[in-house]
Amino acid sequence: MRTNAMPRSGFRRRALAGALGVLTAAAALVAPPPAAAAESTLGAAAAQSGRYFGTAIASGRLNDSVYTTIANREFNSVTAENEMKIDATEPQRGQFNFTAADRVYNWAVQNGKEVRGHTLAWHSQQPDWMRNLSGGALRQAMIDHINGVMAHYRGKIVQWDVVNEAFEDGNSGARRDSNLQRTGNDWIEVAFRTARAADPAAKLCYNDYNVENWNWAKTQAMYAMVRDFKQRGVPIDCVGFQSHFNSGSPYNSNFRTTLQNFAALGVDVAITELDIQGASPTTYANVTNDCLAVERCLGITVWGVRDSDSWRSEQTPLLFDGNGNKKAAYTSVLNALNGGTSEPPPEGGTIQGAGSGRCLDVPNASTSDGTQLQLWDCHGGTNQQWEPTDAGELRVYGNKCLDAAGTGNGASVQIYSCWGGDNQKWRVNSDGTIVGVQSGLCLDAAGSANGSPIQLYSCWNGSNQRWTLT
Ligand code: G3I
Q1: Range 436-456 average pLDDT
Q2: 273 belongs to the catalytic site
Q3: Is 273 in the pocket of ligand 1 (CB under 6 A)?
């Protein structure tokens, strides 16, 4: 089982007043480096871990400057709320209309955002002509639709929701009855194969709701389908968890297990339409941390900007109120994305390897600059006590820093007198990795035995790259 959390509760809180005093004195001499500073928008904060934070955008609201100001500032991914759906893009058979879809797409790319495509094959929001089709004619219409829309956006859409909401709610675990389902059980894989050929660059997702709770039959049915697709080579790259949480479909802490289990099948996962009835800050933070804990979680999309933009506005489920003010849930998501950096960093403790159970250790308690670190049985000696600082350093003996001697794979990680360089700054991530700010590479144990050297290496989610601060 993976160790995703990095418990830090054993660390004692540093004397903040003293630390601030030191920082103020230092600032008088030289401006402190911003490397480990918390980000102030959702998109930038998510980008620290290579993820995006997106929103649904409605083309009809793009003339509202309060809306566009928030959307542009906070989000770096966009999903068209309705404009890329079947009824919008192919209102008459064979006659495609991308006016509204392009409005959203162009706004997004002109403002530097990536775009998720939503959605190509769905039982809902079908135009009348499609709703009236069945059998082979409907199957062909679905294929033509996928080809027509994906050709228009070929190479431009990062992820496509190829198929949406194909499973029944409740305990049956069955496919949802729909005109598409009645064309034959293979309609979903045909949709994915068609999509892969139409735009090989896009990640192809299956997207659904009420599939976040690992124990629910619908979740299990979706899991069985994805596993089967992976086994048979049906081209699927990602699973979207809509995550519309409310009293009838509440958040459950096993969501993280669900995300992990799907990722273990070899697909990416994404939270695609997040809204939470009442917008509990705790639940929003939990969902955010669930994504951050899963390496293959690509990012989070909330289903609208302000409460007043929501399809469920009466539930006030979003991060901004109707006036565009940040809600408490906003702050809790931002803090989670920033790795909890709103709190002062904790005082020293050991850093234990998840795979080895051994500690990050300065050999022979040396204090010499350039001494490469190793794994050693944890004993809590001063040569195993690491203290994170506000600047992003990990200090030992008070004045020596965890220091990368290079920027490439295999570069030695050593102790060196602290001097404020980026090669001495580290991002401690919620998935247990410790990433060098300068190199972007992971703190890596080149073995699991006593004496195994510590180096930098490309992050690959191995247990030799996950650490627990105790
Ligand atoms: O644009 C027309 C407007 O001209 C008309 O006056 C008005 C009258 O009802 O309807 C407007 O269209 C509505 C459209 O939203 C735009 O606001 C449709 O009636 C309404 O059905 C549509 O609802 C959308 C819903 O999907 C349709 O299934 C919601 O905005 C949209 O948020 C919602 O999104 C879905 C995801 O695609 C899939 N997952 C669930 C999610 C929530 O239902």
Answers
A1: 96
A2: yes
A3: yes
Give yes or no for a contact between 425 and 431, defined as CB atoms under 8 angstroms apart.
no
- Collect all residues with Cβ–Cβ distance below 8 Å to 34 and sequence separation of at least 6: none
Distance CA 323, CA 111 (A): 23
Dig out the tokens for 35 from the structure.
Answer: 């490397």
Q: Is 295 exposed, middle or buried (0-12, 13-18, 19+ CB in 10 A)?
A: buried
CB within 8 Å of 429: residues ≥ 6 apart? 6, 49, 292, 339, 435
Pairwise CA distance, residues 297 & 206, whole Å: 14
Please return the burial class of 119, using the count of CB atoms within 10 Å of its CB with bins 0-12, 13-18 and 19+: buried
Please pick, among 74, 81, 83, 165, the residue that the annotation labels catalytic: 165
Chain center to CA of 425: 23
Considering only CA atoms, which of 257, 227, 230, 228 is closest in space to residue 241? Answer: 257
Output the pLDDT for position 2.
31
Q: Does residue 126's CB lie within 6 angstroms of at least one atom of ligand 1?
A: no
Q: Which two tokens stand for residue 304?
A: 């609208």
Tokens of 46: 């998510």
The per-residue pLDDT of the chain, averaged, comes to 90
Of the candidates 398, 365, 371, 367, the one whose C-alpha atom is nearest the C-alpha of residue 383 is 365
Assign 278 to helix, strand or coil. Answer: coil
| 124 Cβ closer than 6 Å to some ligand 1 atom | yes
Ligand 1 pocket, residue 272 CB under 6 Å: no
- What are the φ and ψ backbone dihedral angles of 62, each rounded to 5 degrees? -70, -10
| pLDDT tens digits along 140-158 | 999 999 999 999 999 999 9
Q: Give the contacts of 457 (CB within 8 A, at least 6 positions apart).
A: 409, 410, 441, 442, 444, 446, 465
Query: What amino acid is encoded at 275 in this protein?
Result: D
Tokens read off for 125: 């929001």
Residue range 325-351: average pLDDT?
A: 80
E-state strands within 183-258: 203-208, 238-241, 244-245
Q: 159-164 and 351-353 as β-strands: parallel, antiparallel, unpaired?
A: unpaired
Crossing angle of helices 255-263 and 281-292, in 10° steps, is: 20
Torsion of CA 91, 93, 95, 96, to 10 degrees: 60
Q: How far apart are CA 446 and CA 112, in angstroms?
A: 39
Considering the chain, what percentage of its residues have pLDDT values greater than 70? Answer: 90
Per the structure block, which two tokens stand in for 426? 């580290």
Nearest Cα to 359, choosing from 448, 424, 455?
448
Sign of CA dihedral 331, 48, 397, 19: negative
135, burial (CB in 10 Å: exposed 0-12, middle 13-18, buried 19+): exposed
CA of 100 to the centre of ligand 1 (A): 14
C-alpha to C-alpha distance for 258 and 239, rounded to whole angstroms: 11
